[in-house]
Design brief:
- By secondary structure, this protein is an alpha+beta fold.
- The chain has helices spanning about 1-35, 75-80, 85-90, 270-275; strands at about 70, 95-100, 110, 115, 125-130, 135, 155-160, 175-180, 185-195, 200-210, 215-225, 235-245, 250-265, 285-305, 305-315, 315-325, 330, 340.
- Strand 12 and strand 13 (about 250-265) form a beta hairpin.
- The termini are far apart.
Length: about 350
């Protein structure tokens, strides 16, 4: 009986195989004919596309990256002035141009090979900026508020050309900022500086590592009265980081905070400048920028080709403006037809030199 069952099973399998045999033979014949008429195929070697992300990554030799990646040193206030991040980009890279659209050294337009990162809302953006994997471009308009970046706490800067990994509006490239922590910064440092027009700045920072735990904290305060009247700048920044590293993994909690009041005095008529080069035409022109950003990042390296990374952050930023361009200046009445009046037609407007402003 066992042999009989085995025979029946074998017969069923043979019958099924014979049913599909014509189809298989027909397909092989058609493929052979097609290959005979088609041109010979060329087998190319496999291409492995390896892309970096805004996260830490496992590290790739710069010589193996098919792009002109540039690494810049830490910003130096002593050599590059009160806004060392932007001044350093201009001094170290030939492809960088700076514009002072907001008339303030902390709010410049940065153009990299024709692509712009600007604090002015509405400017076409082509550069993305990341701080420890967190995008600093504002969510509405992608503009970049440079004075909210704690440049004193930057450990390394990387300029990376066009790469889709860095998200939208990164056609010109990405500026990646790696910040200081207790593992790459040891000891304390206090730097004080001053200059003309009321310039004074103080930076205090301290980093310490104990075993596999590291901590860093830094503060920066800068004041500048400006070379023109009513054009001060007040910058207050803070950055802190606490981290644990060891056994191929790391966990860091960082905090970025800033509360800045900047003046951006606009153009002044040449007639008024001839009288007083420090005069302003309209005032006030203030920007109040704030940011609070806690960040939690984790990284675990399994081997040279595999790692697990995460980044959690909350960013709350704001910008308030006080524009003196909107005034109640109107032509004066018939008695003072050649002058400008403020609010009422018999209330002449006076310049900073005490002269009545003509209606021209």
């Amino acid at each position: 009986m066992a042999l009989l069952r085995l025979g029946r099973t074998a017969l069923r399998s043979l019958a099924v195989w014979l049913v599909f045999l014509p189809c298989i033979a027909s397909g092989q014949t058609a493929s052979s004919a097609d290959r005979a008429d088609a041109p010979p195929t060329l087998s190319l070697p496999a291409v492995n596309v390896i892309g970096t992300t805004p996260l830490a990554g496992v590290g790739i030799d710069r010589d193996k990256v098919p792009a002109n990646v540039q690494t810049l040193p830490q910003p130096d206030i002593a050599k590059q002035g009160p806004a060392p991040l932007l001044s350093g980009l201009d001094q170290h890279l030939s492809s960088i141009n700076l514009n002072d659209n907001e008339d303030n050294p902390y709010q410049r337009d940065v153009q990299y090979r024709g692509f712009t990162a600007s604090p002015v809302l509405g400017t076409p953006t082509g550069l993305a900026v990341y701080q420890n994997g967190v995008r600093l471009n504002e969510p509405f308009g992608d503009n970049l508020t440079w004075d909210l970046v704690p440049d004193f706490a930057i450990d390394r800067l990387n300029i990376i050309p066009t790469n889709p990994v860095y998200g939208l509006n990164a056609l010109g490239g990405a500026l990646v900022l790696n910040m200081k922590n207790g593992f790459n910064t040891h000891g304390g440092e206090l730097e004080l500086s001053g200059g003309s027009f009321g310039q004074r700045q103080g930076t205090l920072q301290y980093g310490q590592q104990i075993g596999n735990i590291g901590a860093y904290i830094g503060f920066n305060a800068a004041y500048d009265d400006g070379f023109r009247k009513l054009s001060p700048s007040r910058v207050k920044q803070m950055y802190a980081d606490v981290g644990i590293e060891g056994n191929g993994g790391s966990l860091h909690f960082s905090f970025t905070g800033a509360n800045n009041v900047l003046a951006g005095i606009g153009p002044t008529p040449i007639q008024l400048v001839d009288i007083d080069r420090s005069a302003v035409f309209v005032s006030p022109q203030y920007f109040h920028d704030t940011v609070l950003m806690p960040t939690l990042t984790g990284n675990y390296i399994v081997n040279e080709a595999l790692s697990f990374q995460s980044s959690f952050y909350f960013r709350s930023s704001g910008r308030g403006t006080n524009a003196g361009n909107i005034t109640d200046v109107i032509p004066c009445g018939r008695r003072l037809a050649d002058l400008l009046c403020l609010g009422e037609r018999d209330n002449p407007l006076f310049s900073t030199t005490g002269q009545m402003v003509p209606n021209i």
